Amino acid sequence: MVKFIILCNYFFFFYLIIYATILLITNIYGAVAMYNYRRKEMLHNQLEEDFYLPFSIIVPAYNENIYLIQTVNNLLKQDYKRYEIVVVDDGSTDNTKQLMIDTFKMKRSYGMPIRYQVPCKQIKEYYSARVNGIQIIMITKVNGGCKADASNAGINVASYPYIVDMDADEVLQRDALRYVARAFAENSQVIGVGGNIKIANNVKFKDAIPVEATLSSNPIANMQVLEYGRAFIGSRIFYNNTNSNMIISGGFGAFKKSALVKVGGYDVYNKGEDMELTMKLHQFYRKNNIPYRMVYVPDAVCWTQAPDSMKDFKKQRQRWYVGLIQNYYKYRSMMFNPKYGFLGMATMPFNFFYELLCPEFIIFGWFLIVASLILKLINLRLFIIALSSYILFGIMLTLTMYIDKSFMKNDHYSYLDVVRAFFIAFLDAAFFRPHLFLMEFAVLFKYRKIAKVWSSPKRIQIRTD
What we know:
This protein is 51% helix and 17% strand. It contains 14 helices and 13 strands. The protein has a 10-stranded mixed beta sheet with strand order 3-4-5-2-1-6-11-8-12-7, with helices on both faces. It has a 3-stranded mixed beta sheet with strand order 10-9-13, with no helix packed on it. A hairpin with a 2-residue loop joins strand 9 and strand 10 (209-213). The longest helix has 43 residues, at 2-44. It starts with a helix and ends with a strand.
């Protein structure tokens, strides 16, 4: 028994060392990549190139009468020439539909031919209007019980060959479509582009551009600001080089419509429908030996609302964890499969051990620590040093995140925010991470219940003009 505990302690030591090393390397790589990218842009002024690929922006909405109008108004301010807005009223029981009709003077069209190229519930009504030269379409449909079904309906009515999928309570930054279009235009093999998701809590916008952004007084939201910054900058830029990004976020993702139709759109039975779609595209194009790329573009920014209570945070993260389980099971044949290159041989195994199994490993590790301390198998001084090193690692990640932010366009933060972020990093290590692991671990005991229900966090009001 003693030998087993000692062996396990060595395992967890190297488990954490490997994780910390890889995460730090990818974040430093992201900072260097952003610096080089910004220098290249200043030298060549790439954004002045005159290309305008046409986009259909799909906005699924269910009972969004408070936020949807604001979202559409912000979309109308996009600094882009060719796009349409497709609002999908997914069987709302409030006045979402009537608000859209009244605000934008929408007219119903009868007998509009709709090709059901990807599966979705029945589309019932079709409305349209033109505002400032931008076409706004709204369809109503039978409720599908999830965002994926509404997104598929939007794909079916979209007029343009490029699709953007987002949420109804977000602010798509005014220049986002230009950066997405550049990614598609620079490489014809690109079929999907992931944008940079940032937290909108305590951010003020004017004309869909942030003009004031500070850390809020809510510690739960603040810890997610750090978490999103670490996740969306370092590793996703690193994975661009190996074409192995496992997820294009449902909060802001862009695709060639033809690619989505080929794979049958979103899976309406999956809790992690955005990851499922990304993995399905990888699988389809690799199996059929079709050259392709899916990339992450850090300058294409979409601002989203983060849960500001532990109750809503728990609902969101448990749903995400269920989706992670579903997708690893569904695409298990891709892992350790050389046909899928770096994705199958490195990215999927790494995320399997450090995302999917992380809660189980960590909780088991806590029990081992307690047992080791009781049996005096751990040197208390060395244990305190190791724990301090872990906290220091979180602070170093926070520092690299703010270095990354310094190279981001339209990013705002004060020196006070940087100081506050270091204190939040302590809180993250002591409270946020352990609580997150416990919430995800609990999924194992109520998986079926969570998998049957779609839950959304309570929304907060985004400050905009």
